[in-house]
Amino acid sequence: MQAALANVSVAVSPAEKYREYLATKGLRLTRERSIIVEEVFAYHEHFDAEQLISRLAQKTDGRRVSRSTIYRSLLQLEEASLIRKVARQEDRDVFEHDYGYPQHDHLICRKCGTLTEFQADIIARSLEEVASQHGFRMDGHRLEVTGLCNECCRPPASRPKKLNLL
Amino acid sequence: MQAALANVSVAVSPAEKYREYLATKGLRLTRERSIIVEEVFAYHEHFDAEQLISRLAQKTDGRRVSRSTIYRSLLQLEEASLIRKVARQEDRDVFEHDYGYPQHDHLICRKCGTLTEFQADIIARSLEEVASQHGFRMDGHRLEVTGLCNECCRPPASRPKKLNLL
DNA sequence: CTAAGTGCAAATGTTTTGCAGAATC
DNA sequence: GATTCTGCAAAACATTTGCACTTAG
Asked: Which residues of chain A are within 8 Å of residue B120 when distances are taken between CB atoms?
């Protein structure tokens, strides 16, 4: 029931925070929205809309939610700063938890697509400085570092060239 | 004719570099591709496919190129490291020159959408370090800093709240 | 001649939206 | 009783692709 409360340093559950956000807009935490938040925060992995949709579609109990509602809810969760877009992969927006987890950035393997999180305070600090120099009021950032992950640059055998030309 | 060569520290023109890239694939620098590279490098502003398309559509001379060819060419220019995606705005990929310009990152105003470039060597250096710690072979990064630009946070009059509720 | 290149129109795939009926205050 | 919600199907949109025709080595 109160998932995602155990090993996370938050005072309020994601669902509760969602409820608060909705309240400020005169909206309600419905059964569907509640199912969605809980599913979103049930795992800390990155996900896209389609994955969330199929996770919810597999539920055998009555916890099925329509595609539209899921998309609508994702927008709200983002507005509420519960989740945020981290990247775009295969034409899909990729989300991650933005609530209850420390700020971090990602190493994105351009071969296998794996997202690896890392933390570097110095970056946030540098950005504060840059922003203030430009009179820019920073409220967040997204940093994607691309390259090859440990796994994918291991076998230096033959370069995997594209096989277009017969 | 040889635009973008004057104030840029490159040995070879973008078109020439494009030609070289194409050559490695057994492809040619056609009239259309040539028109596209030149238009892309005629200005240093950020752009999306649609903008490029309409810029080329306005040409009164025979320099018109089809939408498909432009999209196909953009892919190649990206592959060739002549341009790169910097952001995604209004559901469109935004590109910028990646050739002949120093590495930099962007402040993105979430109100007016302005992209402001900045350079911070310390970030690149930090990333090198982080990458090596993870056995990650970095080949680039994208950093979008979001917030309000100088202009947009100037008038501290009334907070521009969304006018949804009547 | 053969392979690459183009333009067109149609397809794709994600995300959004209009609407009618259901649920909630 | 009015307003918010949902699910459905259709729409919107950027981007990609199949195809027939051109063009260039």
From this structure: 126-127, 130
Residues of A engaging B, defined by a Cβ cutoff of 8 Å: 25-26, 88, 107, 109-110, 116, 118, 120, 122-123, 126-127, 130-131, 133-150, 153, 164-165
Asked if the Cβ–Cβ distance from A107 to B131 is below 8 Å, we say yes
Pick the CATH number of A102-151 from 3.20.20.70, 3.10.20.90, 3.30.1490.190, 3.90.79.10: 3.30.1490.190
How many other CB atoms are there within 10 angstroms of residue A23's CB atom? 11
How far apart (Å, rounded) are the C-alpha atoms in residues B49 and B103? 22
User: In which element (H, E) is residue A85 found?
Assistant: strand A83-89
Q: Convert the pLDDT of each residue in A57-97 to its tens digit.
A: 887 676 789 999 999 999 999 999 999 999 999 999 999 99
pTM, two decimal places: 0.82
CATH fold group of domain A10-101: Arc Repressor Mutant, subunit A (1.10.10)
**Listed residue (A105, A99, A107, A118) closest to A148, CA to CA:** A107
Strand A137-148 versus strand A105-109 pairing type: parallel
Measured at the alpha carbon of residue A114, what is the angle toward residues A108 and A117, in degrees to the nearest 5?
Answer: 65
Q: Is the CB of B68 under 7 A from strand D?
A: yes
Considering only alpha carbons, which residue of chain B is nearest residue A105? Answer: B143
